[in-house]
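User: I'm writing a short methods note and want a consistent example. For MFS transporter, I'll paste the sequence; you return only the structure tokens, no commentary, since I'll be parsing the reply automatically.
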Amino acid sequence: MASLNVALPGIARETHASQTQLSWIIDAYSLVFAALLLLAATLGDRFGRRRALLGGLALFAGGSVAAAFASEPETLITLRAVLGVAAAFVMPATLSTITSTFPREQRTRAVSVWAAVAGASAVLGLLASGSVLELWSWRSVFWLNVVLAVVAFVGTYVFVPESAEPGKRRVDIVGATLTVVGLGILVYAVIEAPEHGWASTETLSGMALGLVVLAGFVAWELRHPDPLLDPRLFRDKLFAAGTVSITLQFFAFFGFIFVAMQYLQLVRGSSALVAALSVLPMSAAMIPSARLAPKLAARVGARRPWLVGLVLVAVGLAVLAPLDGGSSYWLILAGLVPLGAGMGLAMTPATAAITDSLPSHLQNVGSAVNDLSRELGGALGIAVLGSVLNAGYRDTLDLDGVPSHIAEAAHSSLAAANVVGARTGDTSLMENARDAFASGMHLALLTGAGAAVLGAVAVAVLLRTAHRPADTPTDADLSTAGQR
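Assistant:
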């Protein structure tokens, strides 16, 4: 999901996408991914995990080829949604393989490796995309996807055996439909809020309708004999804490990546590769902290490093919030290091909390919920932080005395403002637009910091009475909470 962020300025310049459309280009993937993940995992369980993986990889390669030839933002949004469908079939097997293979006493260490790779892959994906963008246009990112998907397809076909449980579950089509509709309406209302106004009837009614549909999903799942996700699992406070933490961590993290890649290239003027290299210290801090987290948990318990990690995420974003075009890179570095270290410290115990709170026969549930929390958090983070950024940019941008056709272009996005400013030689318009973007980014990153603080508060409250491993529920206890 993160690798395309580095190509956003190029996409905006070539397709004339507005700031709202840029949000959709990124979020269409993660929204569909999150909405279909549980259904895709169920279909894989029933009809064959290898078959689902091969089908997902083939669709991902085909969708990436089509996206490489797109010339309109609407087409690109649609094809990104197709890639989200493909990813929903590819992702579920990864964590469940780890948690099913390693015994409980080694699982936290194995999960720490998974968490380090999962978190750092976002930044490494940016680096790979930035490298190919030095040689070609934004379309090269999709061609890179094609190559990786083909390699993964061949590897899966040769090395991965088929496995399925055809008689285990019925497919909950109604639950899947309610998830797609509810999340779709909610995210649409948030992303389009700058167009209509945050207090407008369209925005408030859209948010309310989305929440009502999602409440209907919860009610349906409570009654369904084979739910996609049994809400009763959240009675376990450790499971609930892990889910909330992962969601809010990636809300802040992916929202930051979406905002930062545009800031580095459009405000600071960095190339795609330099922009990707600029955030590499975040990954450098994330990987060792994720590996350190299990050792700290063994010495002082999981709660302390978990909470410290969430607080560090908030601190990092708060440090980055005041950035503008003249900020020193040392200020960026001062925010990236605690942000990366905090993600690593918090991600490992949160992921382990989800998997350790479930018995062995429900580990695929834990894997699916972890993936869902990550992608849902990312989708909402991009929607909310992108919308806050867009609203702040538009509210701050001063277009007095600017011809209407130029003002309309500048109002749509910073990339468009830079293009028309360079074309007309209006450097004051470009500076004004960059300052307005920095003002919107300030609000967006503080919103992300607030989400991390909220996550820390939620974890502190939930873990205050949740003691592990003494009261870890048995298989019998949890088998009645949800079956997969």
